[in-house]
């Protein structure tokens, strides 16, 4: 029997940062519509939303899309909010007897910016485009920013790594694409100039190899390498208790924004104008410093690439390390 409470499915399959960015929609839909909110994502990202108190149930995408659709049909949703918007979500929406809403992906504007450097992109964050997409629901942005929730029973001992809350800087070196990863020479120059304890995080073999290189060649005696040794939640906890976060255009950058951490974001071939910069809608103080190299060839991709199309990778290699160091070393209360 269907209750009087409206039942809403929100869809975002991947990845870390993109899912974290959906959190204001989840929160506002739940609170303003008193809705029962379900979330559909890939199994590997389920942990990102499992402990969100605004989500009543998490569904995972099956290998067979028809199986997923059959399971979702049993829920009798009133509304679907599609925050992924691809062929699979189109098939899901077509199969369901529910009103649906989505958002403008501004793909034409992105294509013009990448290929001809003509900028017709809206001057707004992706979160704000999401809210425009569901405006007919009369749900408004509460300007409370992003959320990231750890399990109630979660624990992590900072002292086991000789770390103290608020006394270290997290350096996130990961990235799905090569052109979004900070090169080792830039990372090493940064680490060696910092006068603070630094914790390196990341995941996967490539990040682990790079972190080992940094550990072996760094002169910073307060460097802690936790790369490929932590879960996403453990990395999030480290970020939550850090003094500052230095990151490329990655999911960890958005988790840092969810915890209102000061962020030094280092951009490569992607661009903040795509709407995926650190989201601080209500903060009057400047928590976000976005470092970019002004090049005629940038951006050369909206997502990232396996290599620099022109071979020089100057969008990363020419960053002003001293400026980043100055911002990090100016944090009060850290030694």
Word description of this protein:
The chain has 335 residues and is of the alpha/beta class. The protein has two domains: 7-137, Glycogen Phosphorylase B (Rossmann fold), CATH 3.40.50.2000; 158-329, Glycogen Phosphorylase B (Rossmann fold), CATH 3.40.50. Helix content is 32%, strand content 13%. It has helices spanning 16-21, 23-33, 65-73, 87-95, 107-116, 126-133, 184-193, 205-217, 232-240, 251-258, 314-317, 321-329; strands at residues 7-11, 36-41, 57-60, 79-82, 99-101, 169-172, 198-201, 223-225, 244-247, 263-266, 288-291. Strands 8-7-6-9-10-11 form a six-stranded parallel sheet, with helices on both faces. A five-stranded parallel sheet has the order 3-2-1-4-5, with helices on one face. Strand 4, helix 4 (87-95) and strand 5 form a beta-alpha-beta unit. The chain is globular and about 60 Å long. 37% of the residues are buried.
The beta-strand count equals 11
Nearest-angstrom radius of gyration?
A: 21 Å
Q: What is the CATH superfamily label of the largest domain?
A: Glycogen Phosphorylase B
- In the predicted model, the low-confidence regions spanning at least 5 consecutive residues are none
Number of helices: 12
Question: Mind summarizing the main beta sheet?
Answer: 6 strands, parallel
CATH domain fold name of the largest domain: Rossmann fold
- How many domain regions? 2
Order of helices and strands: EHHEEHEHEHHEHEHEHEHEEHH
In short:
Helix content is 32%, strand content 13%. By secondary structure, it is an alpha/beta fold. The N and C termini lie far apart (61 Å).
